[in-house]
Each structure stands twice: as structure tokens, then as C-alpha cells.
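Q: What residues go here?
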């Protein structure tokens, strides 16, 4: 009887759809590793942090980036900045970043490269490295900004292989220059042109007999 019950449970596990709620959600992970006391769907964290935590558009180690609701990402997303690489690139730690009903749902991934492709370099548009595809892909995600963590963020070390991969990826030219939307510099205002000075009328030279004689 017990064997039949176990077989029934195993069969049900194969038939029933994957329940993402049983796995680690991005908000639960971000709250656990940062200590930020915020609740609700990921996209609501931005407003929830108003007046409670400092917020901004520049990445910092330990800050939480809040993604907007968009497409199939109806609850938004949050990711924790592990390390700042430069003004356009960071490494992040996050959870549940995978399509529905895939093996990556509910899993934690760390030291993941993310790049800013916003025109003003304000991190309002980003691309996220997806390890299974080994690519940043073409999808651009809109974000609301960073919630700054008042606590010291101490991410756990990642395996050497993963760390080396992340470092190599972070240093590689991940996106052609033409694909990045760079800010357009405004043309400086042309300096005011001074009115041309009136032409000076040459005065007739006074005849110098001595000078004329020397030239002759």
C-alpha cells in the first residue's frame, strides 16, 4: 500500500505544473540578504521605500534595483547589487529570474552581470545576463531606481568557477557600441560674434625725400 502511495505521489509530481510560489521569490531573497523591511510585490517596493530608505538612480553595493511591471513580469522584479564595476555595469544577486515552468524558476543566481542602456546613464533601462543563453539578449527592462541599503552588504563568496565566469563576462565587450543608446551631448551655444570692425582707410603716407632717395 505504501509503495502504491509513493508511486502516486511521484506521478502527480510529474503531471502537476511547477508551482513557483513554492520556490524562492525575488522579494523574499532580497529582503533576506539585505535586511530591508519592505513587503508586497516587487514593483511596489519603490513607493514603499519612500520616506523609509534613501533612493536614487546611481548603483551602490548592496542597493536593491526595482524593476517595473512589464510584459509577463506582472509583479515586477528586484535585484541586489553585489558589486559596482563601472558607471554602466554591475554584478547582481537575485532569485526567480527565469521563464515560467523552467528549471530556473525559484533559484538564486549570484554575481550576474547587468548593464545600463539608458540614454542618460540613469539605469532606467537595463539588460540582464541570462546564464542558460550565455547572453544579455535583446530585451530591455525598465526600472524605477535603487533603494539604498543602510546595512553593510556582505554577499557570500561564489564558487571560483562562477566568479571567474562573471569576471570574464563583466570585462568582455558584451554589447556592440551601436546597440548602446548613449546620451547625446548638447551642442554648446555658439559664442556671440563681435561685429566686424570697420575697415580702416589707409592714410596717405607723407613723402620722405630722404627715404625715397635711399630706396632709389
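A:
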Amino acid at each position: 500500500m505504501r509503495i502504491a502511495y509513493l508511486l502516486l505521489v511521484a506521478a502527480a509530481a510529474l503531471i502537476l505544473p511547477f508551482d513557483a510560489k513554492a520556490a524562492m521569490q525575488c522579494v523574499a531573497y532580497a529582503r533576506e540578504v539585505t535586511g530591508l523591511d519592505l513587503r508586497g510585490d516587487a514593483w511596489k517596493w519603490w513607493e514603499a521605500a519612500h520616506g523609509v530608505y534613501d533612493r536614487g538612480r546611481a548603483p551602490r553595493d548592496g542597493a536593491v534595483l526595482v524593476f517595473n511591471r512589464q510584459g509577463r513580469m506582472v509583479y515586477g522584479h528586484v535585484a541586489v547589487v553585489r558589486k559596482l564595476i563601472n558607471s554602466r555595469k554591475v554584478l547582481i544577486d537575485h532569485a526567480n529570474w527565469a521563464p515560467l515552468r523552467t528549471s530556473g524558476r525559484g533559484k538564486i543566481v549570484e554575481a550576474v552581470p547587468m548593464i545600463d542602456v539608458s540614454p542618460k546613464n540613469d539605469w532606467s533601462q537595463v539588460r540582464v545576463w541570462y546564464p542558460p543563453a550565455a547572453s544579455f539578449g535583446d530585451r530591455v527592462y525598465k526600472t524605477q531606481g535603487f533603494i539604498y541599503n543602510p546595512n553593510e552588504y556582505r554577499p557570500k563568496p561564489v564558487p571560483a568557477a562562477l566568479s571567474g565566469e562573471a569576471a570574464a563576462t563583466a570585462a568582455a565587450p558584451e554589447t556592440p557600441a551601436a546597440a548602446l543608446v548613449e546620451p547625446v551631448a548638447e551642442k554648446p551655444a555658439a559664442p556671440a560674434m563681435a561685429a566686424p570692425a570697420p575697415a580702416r582707410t589707409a592714410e596717405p603716407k607723407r613723402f620722405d625725400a630722404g627715404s625715397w632717395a635711399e630706396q632709389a
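A: Context that may help when evaluating the design: Residues 4-22, 175-192, 204-216 have pLDDT under 50 and may be disordered. Residues 18-154 form a domain with the endopeptidase fold (from Nostoc punctiforme) fold (CATH 3.90.1720.10).
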